[in-house]
Amino acid sequence: MTKYFPGGFSADRSNLQRRSFLKLAGAGGLALTAGGLSLPGLSRAADQKSVAFWATATLDIGDKWAEFAKQTGVMPQFTDNGNDLGPIIARLAAGNANDLFDVGGFQGGAEKELARQGKIIPWDVSKIANFDGLWQWARDIPYLKQNGKQYSIPTVVNADSIIYRPDKLGKVDSYSVIFDPKLKGRVAMEDAWINSAIFTAIYLKEGLNKPIKDPGNLSESELGMVMEFLIKHKKDGQFRTFWNGWEQGVQLIANQEVDAMTGWEPIVYEGRKRGLQVDYAVPVEGYEGWANNTVLLKGAEERGVTDAAHQFVNGLLDGFYGCELGKTRGYLVPTDKNVDYAKAHPDEYKVADVKGLADHVKAKFAGKVFWQNARPDNFQLYEEWWQKLRNA
User: Fold this and answer.
1) What is the pLDDT of residue 231?
2) Residue 281: which H helix or E strand, with range?
3) Which of 76, 75, 29 is nearest to 52 (CA)?
4) For the chain, what are the domain ranges?
5) DSSP sequence for 158-221
6) pLDDT class of 369 with cuts at 50, 70, 90
7) Which fold has domain 161-287+376-391?
8) How far from 190 is each of 40, 63, 206, 250, 262, CA to CA, in Å?
9) CATH code of the domain made up of 31-158+289-371
10) Which residue among 7, 112, 219, 344 is least crowded, i.e. fewest CB within 10 A of its CB?
């Protein structure tokens, strides 16, 4: 197992904010910026070379945005969107998100719906010089394009599985550990169907040979089978909890409340920074692959900042951001630009680490991967079933 271990979504709420970011819940309208609190609408005219970036908290690079701005000429105003596509889509469709933000960083799968509603607009890849440097398989992710137009850019890719304590369990290589009655009350899953339903479906399909065609897009009967399986195990007391937000995920490990849980690799990365013995499984059943994509919100066009938005996303693909995100989160921007940047700045980033992370993620996608789908065909049924699980 390589040492380059790096480092979701529920219907109602998935990820708690990583550093107590002020959540934009409509009426307040305050946003966190790299320099502190501001009212998003007030700083725009004074600095057109800024973009309001509404993205998953793990995409934030904190005070390193200042260096990013120095290199690219664009300073992002970062606000955590909570990572839960349900509320995100609602705020775009009927709320004030397009009034406040220019660029979104969302889990992939909702592009079709958002494009149909006219809430996002296509990128002009001719204005993104680094677009051609993205790895081809990342550019080929199906939902990036709608009607032949590039609606999203695959800024981060990874594949998720199981976080576990090797000092407690030895080597783990199967989702069966999550459902092992010997570990009753010592395992956890995320309070998010976008991850936990697919993990369970992968296990049932590949581990127990259940008739499931696509774990990321379950039919009504397949979904019922998966959710009944989860509800039974919950009622049996199998799970310590269904965790919400990566800080809670880290605490479950740090406090030794669980020995294994499905979850994100940044939890492993953070756990190791805290001196914990924690590993990430290479599951025999396969990984859950996902992409966090950058989309151009309609509001950016209305405010005349699309050029700055293109300049910003080009900067995300230029190497510095990829090196920094890999170092702090273990997340991968799918381009060789990261290695090129590390070679040019060996005092800041270790080339071996940057290359190792790339090789690690490439190895995942060379094996069995089932793609996460943030908007499956029966997503409303997913919502209903997940509520049943919560109430069980």
Assistant:
1) 98
2) none
3) 76
4) 31-158+289-371, 161-287+376-391
5) EEEEEEE-HHHH----SGGGGG-GGGTTSEEEES-HHHHHHHHHHIIIIIS----S-TTS--HH
6) very high
7) D-Maltodextrin-Binding Protein; domain 2 (3.40.190)
8) 32, 29, 21, 12, 7
9) 3.40.190.10
10) 344
